[in-house]
Amino acid sequence: MAAASGHNARLLALALALLLAALHLHGVVCDPSHTHFAMVSRNAPSWRPDRGGQGKPSPSPEDFLNENLQALYPVIQAFKATITSDPRGVTASWVGPNLCDSYFGGDMYKGFYCEHPPAPPGATPPKDNTTLTIASIDFNGYGLGAPSLAGFVDAFPDLALFHANSNNFSGEVPDLTGLPYFYELDLSNNNFSGAFPATVVPLGRLLFLDLRFNRFVGTVPPPVFDLTVVALFLNNNGFYGNIPDNFGSTTAEYLVVANNQFTGPIPRSIYNTSANLSEVLFLNNHLSGCLPYEIGLVEGLTVFDAGGNDITGPIPLSLGCLGLVEELNLAGNQLYGHIPDVLCALAKTGKLQNLSLSDNYFHSVGRRHCLELVRSKVLDVRLNCIPNFPHQRPALECARFYADPPQHCPFVPHIPCDLPGFRPPAAALPSAVAAEEGGGGGGGGN
């Protein structure tokens, strides 16, 4: 497929964009209600074991900045004892009483970051170190291995975020519901398995949830789409079954369910995401059914990718209302009918830069705008049924498909936005649409 080579690159680009967004959240998600707090660093002297190695092997209570950190010291040491792999030698820095060394610009206790917890409403935050506590843990890329995170992550009462991308953690996902400030969880690219972690569903304050590249299996509980997240990554697992009907309840701006085993249609409730959804990736599942007209109502979409599924039907004219969309991939499905000029016009009137419709069963393209996009290679229509176009399906294969299409999907002629130069076709028939937009007729072609 023409679009296949770009799938992994698009996922990587989206992951990098979300990482930058996450870093941005660290500095800005500190609202007046004090439900979140951020990581910062300070320049100040910090305690070290002396160069002769005579630093205290077991710190005394007075060596710690406060009782909070004293209580967390044995938690870290107990977890350190369970580490089965540490290729970067990170845990060698987990010694002594300076759990907040990074706060003062030091390099002890790599991966742990401290901050003062939020003060009660109306109170003045403290200026001394008596309330410093570990607010975030970032193990991204460390390659650490441990059989379980339970009893570790959930033992930091003031933790706001936990990042553990690209490690070798497994076991059950800890219950973090007792952490009042927690809002960001990244367990991507680890060895977690089993059903969707039930401990995640009650985390109503989550802004960022990343479970991609694990070995989770089973259905996704509907309450997951009720979480008030900005980003939701579930891709590259073994999730199956229908995407829940309340999909449209999500508050996510970035949502990826790609490379799983989902079946059934794209939920029509997607129209409810119009106020927030920017990028959504459904690619490489087993989705079927008609391409929903409601997609065209999600006006803020910049990326829509449903390639590599079994979706069928014509392209709804409503997609011509996606004025902000930059990438639209529907390659590798069973779509048919006419490729409408109202969609191709987005390359001029909107922000469309890449339109992939290869490996489908379209029989014609709009002559005014779509032909121009084919020539400029913005639009990929290879392996379709368009007469006199190169690299099309065999005529017999196209004839068999049109004689018995996988599903009859209604064509809705209505365009739910004001597009100058386009008026509704006289009848909801492919021939009428082709005539209205100047497109050719259907059939097979080589």
Topology:
Elements: H1 4-28, H2 67-80, E1 112-115, E2 133-138, E3 145-146, E4 161-163, E5 168-169, E6 184-186, E7 193-194, E8 208-210, E9 215-218, E10 231-233, E11 238-242, E12 254-256, E13 261-264, E14 279-281, E15 286-287, E16 303-305, E17 312-313, E18 327-329, E19 334-339, H3 341-344, H4 346-349, E20 354-356, E21 361-365, H5 370-375, E22 379-380, H6 395-403, H7 430-437
Parallel strand pairs: 2-4, 3-5, 4-6, 6-8, 7-9, 8-10, 9-11, 10-12, 11-13, 12-14, 13-15, 14-16, 16-18, 17-19, 18-20, 19-21, 20-22
Antiparallel strand pairs: 1-2
Region (Disordered): 42-63
Signal peptide: 1-30
Pfam family, one: LRR_1
Q: CATH superfamily membership of the largest domain, which one?
A: Ribonuclease Inhibitor
Computed over alpha carbons, the radius of gyration is: 27 Å
Spatial order of the strands in the main sheet? Answer: 1-2-4-6-8-10-12-14-16-18-20-22
**Span between N and C termini?**
17 Å
Description:
- It is a single chain.
- With 446 residues, the protein is an alpha/beta fold.
- The protein has two domains: 67-192, Ribonuclease Inhibitor (Leucine-rich repeat, LRR (right-handed beta-alpha superhelix)), CATH 3.80.10; 217-413, Ribonuclease Inhibitor (Leucine-rich repeat, LRR (right-handed beta-alpha superhelix)).
- The protein has helices at 4-28, 67-80, 341-344, 346-349, 370-375, 395-403, 430-437; strands spanning 112-115, 133-138, 145-146, 161-163, 168-169, 184-186, 193-194, 208-210, 215-218, 231-233, 238-242, 254-256, 261-264, 279-281, 286-287, 303-305, 312-313, 327-329, 334-339, 354-356, 361-365, 379-380.
- The strands form four sheets. A twelve-stranded mixed sheet has the order 1-2-4-6-8-10-12-14-16-18-20-22, sandwiched between helices. The protein has a five-stranded parallel sheet with strand order 7-9-11-13-15, with no helix packed on it.
- Mean pLDDT is 85; it is low at 1-5, 16-56 and 426-446.
- One of its GO terms (cellular component) is extracellular region.
- Residues 1-30 form the signal peptide.
- Its main location: secreted.
